[in-house]
Amino acid sequence: MLRPTLIYLSQKQTPKKLLTGHALGRRMAARFIAGEELEDALQVIRRLDAEGFMVTLDLLGESVQEAAEAEAACQAYVRLLDRLAVEGLNSHVSVKLTQLGLAIDERLACRHLSAICECAARRHNFVRVDMEGSDFTEATLRVFRAVGAPRDVVGVVIQSYLYRSERDVEELLKCGARIRLVKGAYDEPREIAFQRKRDVDRNFSRLMTMMLSSGIYHAIATHDERLIAEAREYARGHAIPTERYEFQLLYGIRRDLQRDLRQQGERVRLYVPYGHQWYSYFMRRLAERPANLLFLLRNVFRE
Question: Which of 58, 168, 178, 180 is the catalytic position?
Fold first, then answer.
């Protein structure tokens, strides 16, 4: 029952105000968030870069209600791409389309994503379009296709807990899209999503093999050691070199696994979020693995 409760709380303002306004809340979030300011995030990226990790940087924020907010987010990403290029850091960026105005006007989000992709192309970088709740799945894929940026500039995320994802992967592979495969972090109804972990995992495996065998560079995003081992075994068995895919893991989660994969010669990219709008992201991370909550509380109070 803890997972749906945490997801429910991630959408509520009262606990958000309590947690974000308290030093304890910020200390807990620091495990998963690289700080509230860009300079904080850059410091983290420099360290990870030196350790041999790749990064995808996420400026936290979603579901903006005003066009001016969406424009500000777009410009922030352009400045971010410029800064990454100046410093020569090995980091992509991840964007949520509702942060770029998708809930206001699909054309607005399309215009902003196009601007970010144009900057990424100039800077020889890459933009990953994150997938949000199912209310935005179809619109996100429409905007992704409409932008029409080169496939080495923009990619998209697919969630294995949705029934529709196999069809979506098939269509995306036809147009050469680069996919990040995740399980999914939102509370979706049984009418559209698998409810049992074993079914989500089984679909993840199915989609993963489709992606790895496509010849396109993809990202396998999971902390599930069984699925990671399965991906590595499939790649070895089909002579797929490690240069043709990467594993993606979340900043602050399973650091031991991150290091082990890197030491074993795998390409590892860490999803590093930063910004003031960290509450919803933080709560979803706790919901994905409620044991993280006990871990955080133990360590916070130990300090």
Answer: 180
Q: What is the mean pLDDT of residues 256-270?
A: 97
Where are the chain's structural domains? Answer: 1-33+279-303, 37-277
- Report pTM: 0.89
Nearest C-alpha neighbor of 80 from the set 36, 34, 116, 33: 116
If one counts every other C-beta atom within 10 angstroms of the C-beta of residue 293, the result is 16
pLDDT score at 232? 98
Q: What is the bridge-based pairing of β-strands 154-159 and 127-129?
A: parallel
- For 169, the token pair is 């992967």
Among 64-78, 239-253, 280-294, the least confident range: 280-294
Place of tokens 């924020």: 61
Which tokens sit at 218?
Answer: 């993809």
CATH architecture of the domain formed by 37-277: Alpha-Beta Barrel (3.20)
Residue (of 249, 287, 208, 284) closest to 56 by Cα position: 249
- Residue 281 near residue 302 (C-beta atoms within 8 A): no
Q: Find tokens 């192309």 and name the residue.
A: 121
Tokens of 147: 């932008």
Is 130 catalytic? The answer is: yes
Identified catalytic residue from 130, 168, 187, 201: 130
Q: What is the mean pLDDT of residues 226-241?
A: 98
Evaluate if residue 18 carries a pLDDT over 60.
Answer: no
DSSP per-residue codes, 125-170: --EEE----GGGHHHHHHHHHHH---TTTEEEEEETTBTTHHHHHH
Look at residue 121 and tell me whether its pLDDT is greater than 90: yes
